[in-house]
Amino acid sequence: MLTSRIHRRKPKGKSMPIATARANAAKSSIRARIEHVFAHQKNRFGLFIRTIGITRAEAKLTLANLAYNFDRLIFHEKRVATA
């Protein structure tokens, strides 16, 4: 019932099969969108979780996600206002 989200490697000395290349591309499109969010949080908000306890770590991550969502909301509101 579970599907793998891990990329497949190219066989040594051979070209990558077309089906494998397409599967990797489909996985990459999802992965890239998520990785951009994490990179934005790390670079812009200085997200580095170093806390004692899972509760504090979850709180810090929740606040970072909230700040990111507000940042995106402001970005989209400005885009609509100028269009």
Give a written overview of the molecule:
- With 83 residues, the chain is mostly helical.
- The protein has one domain (18-82).
- It has two helices and no strands.
- The N and C termini lie far apart (45 Å).
Query: SS-based structural class?
Result: mainly alpha
Uncertain residue segments: none
Let me know the average pLDDT: 89
Instruction: Kindly report how far apart the N and C termini lie.
Output: 45 Å
Shape summary: flat
The radius of gyration is 19 Å
Order of helix and strand elements from N to C terminus: HH
Strand content: under 5%
Tags for this model:
single chain, mainly alpha, flat, about 65% helix, about 80 residues
Structure summarized in a few sentences:
With about 80 residues, the protein is an all-alpha fold. Helices cover about 65% and strands about 0% of the residues.
Task: Show the helix and strand layout.
Blueprint lengths: L17 H27 L9 H29 L1
